Amino acid sequence: LAGAVCSGEECHKALQRDWAGQRCVFLGWNRDGDAKYLRDTDVALATSPEDADCIVAHGPDRLYATGDEAAPVLTGFCDSGDVAPYAACFDVCARRGVPLLCANPDLVSVDPQGRALWMPGTLADAYRARGGRVVDFGKPDASLFAAAVDRARGARRPTTGEDATTNGRSAVPAAPRVLHVGDSLKHDIAGAANAGVDSLFVVDTGIHARDLGRGRFDDVDRDDTHPGDDDTTLLQRIERLAEELGTPLPTYVISKFAW
Predict the structure, then answer these.
(1) Which helix (H) or strand (E) holds 136?
(2) How far apart are CA 75 and CA 84, in angstroms?
(3) Which residues contact 109 (CB under 8 A, 6 or more apart)?
(4) Which pLDDT tens digit goes with each residue over 191-239?
(5) Buried b (16+ CB within 10 A) or exposed e, 121-153
(6) How far apart are CA 162 and CA 36, in angstroms?
(7) Which of 116-120, 154-158, 184-188, 205-209 has the lowest mean pLDDT?
(8) What are the two backbone dihedrals, phi and then psi, of residue 114, each rounded to the nearest 5 degrees?
(9) Pick the residue with more confidence: 232 or 80?
(10) Residue 198 CA to chain centroid, in angstroms?
(11) Which residues, other chains included, contact 176 with Cβ-Cβ below 8 Å and sequence gap of 6+?
């Protein structure tokens, strides 16, 4: 593992760079101390949606809109997908033209038991539907892929015949060979296409398993066989789903990303 780049990190950098001294409504995870994400940004919690300069959508379970870090509203959105607890706050902020910074644009995730978990990207879509402006960090925006390639470029050791750069970072080819692996057509596959890199679409253990008739995450056949479902049928289903979602097709397809 050469390193890691995540959307939350990129959003945090933007808060430090562009929003220092401002106040935000913070959407967090269901864990104590999640608002510590704002530390080192000089961004404070807003005392109400009326005095917020921005909304920071970091997690899907807690709403901090009173200025009290110890008293968030527990929304349960991750499990329920019900936007109602956010409605009043979103209405006020959208009316005032307050932007929402989405630190995790994923719409849904899948836990090891195969349950769908609703993510901040779905909250961002609900805010858009109210006329609010959303700034996404992460996939499918190409900037996150550029940051990851840059991180890999700095971490890679020179191989035979290569020269290390004078600034201590290792040399890589001008056009590095990159393969992005992911399970979301809207985020991973579209993002890879936006960044101009190849993609590997994971089917059976990803969020589109049911959409493609492959069952749940936890009931996939261990031998990877699906009676009556040959490769041609699966590719046709992927083509139809990509057309429905308005996304490009992946470069490659794999049933599980496992070893």
Answers:
(1) strand 134-136
(2) 9
(3) 116, 117, 119, 207
(4) 999 989 999 999 988 888 888 888 654 444 434 444 445 667 889 999 9
(5) bbbbebbeebebebbbbbbbbebbbebbbeebb
(6) 43
(7) 154-158
(8) 85, 5
(9) 80
(10) 19
(11) 149, 152, 153
Omega of the bond leading into 140 within 30 degrees of 0 (cis): yes
Q: How many Å apart are CA 93 and CA 87, to the nearest integer?
A: 10
Residue 196, classified by CB atoms within 10 Å of its CB into exposed (0-12), middle (13-18) or buried (19+), is: exposed
Per DSSP, helices labelled H in the chain are 7-18, 77-80, 84-96, 120-129, 142-155, 190-195, 231-245
Task: Give yes or no for a contact between 195 and 146, defined as CB atoms under 8 angstroms apart.
Answer: yes
Judged by phi (left if over 0) then psi (alpha if -120 to 50, else beta), residue 114 lies in left
Tokens at 13, concatenated: 């950098």
In whole angstroms, give the CA distance from residue 228 to residue 256: 19
- Is the model's pTM score more than 0.90? no
Contact of 189 with 250, CB cutoff 8 Å: yes
Give, in order, the Cα–Cα distances in Å from 191 to each of 63, 103, 145, 210: 29, 15, 8, 22
Among 160, 159, 70, 59, CA closest to 118: 59
Place of tokens 């050469």: 2
What are the CA-CA distances from residue 247 to residues 29, 168, 193, 237, 244 (Å)? 29, 39, 9, 13, 8
Indicate the burial class of 46 (C-beta count within 10 angstroms; 0-12, 13-18, 19 or more). Answer: buried
